[in-house]
Amino acid sequence: MQKVKNKKAVSKLALSGIKSNKKKYIVLVAAVILTTLLFSSLFTVGGSLIAETQISTMRQIGTTYHAGFKNLSQSEYEKVKDDPYAKNMSYCITVGYLSDDKLNKLPTEVYYAEALNAKKCFCYPEVGSLPVKENEIVTSDLVLEKLGVEAKVGSTFKINLLIDDKEIQQEFTLSGYYRGDKLAKAQTALISKDLQEKVAPVKTITFPEREDNKTAGFISVYFDFNNSFNIEDNVVDLIERTGLRNDVDYGINYAYAGYDIDPSMVIICGVMLVTFFIAGYLIIYNIFDINIVSDMQEYGLLKTIGTTGKQLKKIVMKRANVISIIGVPIGLLLGIGVGTVVLPFISDQMNTMTVGKGEVHLNIWIIIGAALFSYLTVVISALRPCRKAAKVSPIETLKYTEESGNDARRGKKITVVILSLSLALVILNSVIGLVSGFDVNEFVKSDIVGDFSIQDASLDNMAASFHETDSVDLDLMEMVQKQPGVKETGNIYVSTFWQEFSDESWNILEDNFFKEEAIKDCINSCYTSGSYDYEACMNDYRKSKTLAGNTYGMGKFATGKLSVVETIDGSDKIDWEKFNSGNYVLATRWTMDGQFFINIVEPGDKVQIRSHDPKYAEITDEPVETGSRTSYTSYENAPVKEYEVYAIVDIPIPMKYPVSEFIELNYILPENEFLLMEGDKGAMRMLVDVEDDKEESFEKWIAEYTSSEDPSMDYRSKKSVTEEYKSLSNTIGIVGIVLAVILGLIGIMNFANTMVTSIIVRSRELAMLEAVGMTGRQQRHKLMKEGFTYFLLTMIVSVVISSILSVTVIRFLAKELEMFVWRFTLLPLVCCLPIMLGLIVIIPVIAHNRLSKRSVIDRLRVE
After folding, report:
1. How far is CA 806 from CA 428, 437, 438, 733, in A?
2. Of 134, 476, 515, 681, which is the most exposed, with the fewest CB atoms less than 10 Å away?
3. Cβ 419 vs Cβ 790: under 8 Å
4. What is the helix (H) or strand (E) element at residue 72, kind and residue range?
5. pLDDT tens-digit profile of 364-375?
6. Which residues in 496-534 belong to E strands, given as ranges?
7. Rounded Cα–Cα distance for residues 822 and 813 (Å)
8. Backbone phi, psi, residue 132, to 5°
9. How far is CA 236 from the centre of its chain?
10. How far apart are CA 757 and CA 290, in angstroms?
11. Is the dihedral of CA 39, 44, 49, 50 positive or negative?
């Protein structure tokens, strides 16, 4: 068969059809723009948030490298530096810390680092250069600000270097600086190779062979692999391949590992993506389908002159491509713009710690992904109408009208429009239903238990390397109590030494608590190394007979904030007078993710608490495996007192010491008893309740105190927490409503296009009815009834689906997001449905009025 070159003819026919029906195709281009806007805004916001989270995690870890070895000697570094499978390898050498009272809340580590290491560890100077001369230094603008040094290359300042257990004073010249992260675990200062060799020469002994826990002079090596899959396995292979010691300390960059992916959020994101795809598909498919109907006579004429079904498909797809070429780029630009506006609101609610927070992180894959999804939506939407145009015979196409289609086809068209209209209503009802359940009082109690909480600024900062636990001294307590309107105060003290057990108590613990299957599973899941399992862990426990945990001291006010699980006398409250007698202690229970609980000790058990009053401290030393000796502070001869467990309680998170272990046992003593055991010391935090009308004045006072008089202190207030979570609720509402509005526009456009095109296709039929006596008013009434049918079906579908989602998905989300309380509501539907009814009824009337401007004779002439 001779092949006919018809590409030009097909292209001309496709383009001529668009030119002759510009208004119709403008609607289709608008649909593609809206769909692309949906995808591009989703990809922009989602991709930027993922990138921001990854960058934030990397900055917390301190590097973009896949992994690294810590504390290597020179000979160990020589073993790994030339490994062919480790890419981009670089190193830094530990020197110590910058030592200055102004940096107490901003720990600053000092290293010598290679240029590549500095770049990939976020400390390469953005202004200036790396240090070369002995007296040169690079550090962050945050450190310079704290020290009162001008951020200018050439600035000079004196500061102490803390190198292991000794300090030396050094005068530095700033050779460069970089932007620091305020909440990073530590800031970094880089010195020259000459100074490093002078004050902290590279170690020739291995890390286990060191004396007195010294770290200066050891090398940390960082490297990448070919990809980020199975990083830990690759590190283990590298250790075996190079012959490094088995106990080498290595770190994995979990920004790549994806350890913190929440499966529920993955499901939610997947559902949102599918929702967007369906929304785009519904409008584009329906408009394509309607346009095929209105163009059917054109295709019939083409078929009568010999155009094949395959060529008709090409014409339709050519038009789809032209529409995409116009609509997709515009939608991309609009979507990126919408994403850029919305992103900062969402980013502000995320607990990310990164420079450039809230900025758009665009890359070619985001743009390609959004464009591809949009184009695929157009192609998939056009395929079915293509097949319909190709299959209809020439005679059928010449007589084809909307009414000539069978009921199944009309039913599908109605279904598509109903789903499109309902989708917007369902999402709007779901979002507002969730946001309307915002109850700050439900959530504030998990973040603050009084009107105010006063503590050291480092205490609740999880990025801080040290948490100050006794900064609320007697002077501050007295100042707070003298402030107008203060009703009650409660001090919380803490001792972070582990809990000890007698032989008898330990045997009971092992026979009961440690025999629980949940505990065995917990230990096995925490220790995944093949050489260290449940039994190995238990052997270590048996040797020490200790459990991780803290001992708290609390007064009556703070004790009243505890959640009582069970008491020795069966009450659900703590008798303060009895508890304060000095013979009792409260104990916490073990929990897995706050959902599964097991008592470690029981009410009525006898437990022992050792005093850690500094007056009993003794410096002692003992040999270590390497043959050297190490010194430490011992309380072995301090007195031990026995207490009876009065109650099992849960300590609210805002009252706890922020560092915890996977298995820990906490005790709570009355305040006075705690101070007798531990000696006079400051409180970890102070809870304050203030009269309502005095809260504002108290907050002004404490804000001034913590910013001017003692900047090392910080506070949280119920007001600040309330505003924080109201902001989150508003963000969810804004994003949800914007999404619902976009989907609503799609639904209305879908309905409008359906009705308008239907009226155009049926114009000859309507003209005939008018010719035989049907008035324009009767025709409008008929069309309004059709529109009302759409409304009625939309209302039923919206109410049913919204109700199902409310009692399932929204209820689940409200449970997961603690600041929300689930409440069943259909109020958004009640408000929106009348508006939709008006549009659904008015649109056909407007379309009919426009059509009726042409005479009956003109309309009857249309074939």
Report:
1. 12, 12, 15, 16
2. 515
3. no
4. strand 67-72
5. 777 787 788 778
6. 499-500
7. 9
8. -120, -50
9. 30
10. 7
11. positive
Q: What is the DSSP string of 815-862?
A: HHSTTB------HHHHHHHHHHHHHHHHHHHHHHHHHHTS-HHHHHH-
Q: Which residue has the tokens 């649909």?
A: 31
Which residues on neighbouring strands pair with residue 176, listed in sequence order?
128, 138
Beta pairing, strands 551-554 & 667-670: parallel
Beta pairing, strands 136-140 & 667-670: unpaired
Residue with tokens 């059809």: 17
Two structure tokens written together for 460: 């609740």
Task: Return the H-helix or E-strand segment holding 431.
Answer: helix 407-435
d(CA 166, CA 747): 72
273, 278, 281, 287: CA torsion to nearest 10:
-140
Angle at 80 between CA 79 and CA 86, to 5 degrees: 160
Structure tokens at 695: 């809260």
Q: Contact, 709 vs 408, CB < 8 A?
A: no
Quick one: pLDDT at residue 1?
41
Determine contact, residues 283/750, Cβ cutoff 8 Å: yes
Taking only the tens place, the pLDDT of each residue in 160-205 is 998 987 889 999 999 999 988 765 667 899 999 999 999 999 999 9
Distance CA 81, CA 91 (A): 9
Q: Are 665 and 588 in contact (CB under 8 A)?
A: yes
The alpha-helical segments, DSSP class H, found in 107-202 are: 115-120, 141-147, 193-199
**Burial state string for 123-149 with b = 16 or more CB within 10 A and e = fewer than 16:** bbbeebebbeebebbbbbbbbbebbeb
Tally of residues, the chain: 863
Residues of the chain with pLDDT under 50: 1-2, 258-261, 349-355, 357-358, 402-405, 463-465, 529, 862-863
> Do the beta carbons of residue 485 and residue 690 sit within 8 Å?
yes
CA–CA separation, 224 and 90 (whole Å): 10
Based on its alpha-carbon atoms, the radius of gyration of the chain, rounded to whole angstroms, reads 36
Return the residue matching tokens 């430490």.
Answer: 632
Output the DSSP codes for 548-614: B--EEEE-HHHHTTSEEEEETTS-SS--HHHHTTTTEEEEE-EEETTTEEE-SS-TT-EEEEE---G
**Distances, alpha carbon 279 to alpha carbons 77, 219, 325, 421, 828, in Å:** 57, 56, 20, 10, 20
Q: Are 702 and 489 in contact (CB under 8 A)?
A: no
User: How far is it, in rounded angstroms, from Cα 635 to Cα 610?
Assistant: 8
3-class state of residue 642 by DSSP = strand
Rounded to 5°, the CA angle 821-827-829 comes to 125
Instruction: Please check whether residue 360 is in contact with residue 339, taking contact to mean a CB–CB distance below 8 angstroms.
Output: yes
- CA nearest neighbour of 287 among 684, 612, 750, 694: 750
Contact 19, 322 (CB under 8 A): no
Question: CB neighbours (10 Å) of residue 52?
Answer: 23
Do 177 and 138 touch, CB atoms closer than 8 A? yes
Task: Name the DSSP class of 683.
Answer: B
Report d(CA 595, CA 601) in Å as an integer: 19
CA distance 221 to 224: 11
Q: Structure tokens of 499?
A: 């809990």
pLDDT of residue 106: 78
Nearest to 686 by CA among 558, 550, 551, 563: 558
| E strand or H helix that includes residue 241 | helix 231-242
Other CB atoms within a 10 A radius of the CB of residue 156 amount to 12
SS3 49: helix
CB neighbour list of residue 339: distance below 8 Å, 6 or more residues apart: 40, 41, 42, 43, 44, 45, 48, 360
DSSP classification of residue 808: I
Rounded distance, CA 660 to CA 663, Å? 8
Orientation of helix 827-852 relative to helix 407-435, angle to 10°: 140
Strands (E), 235-370: 249-252
Q: Token pair 């508890």 is at which residue?
A: 579
CA distance from start to end of the chain: 36
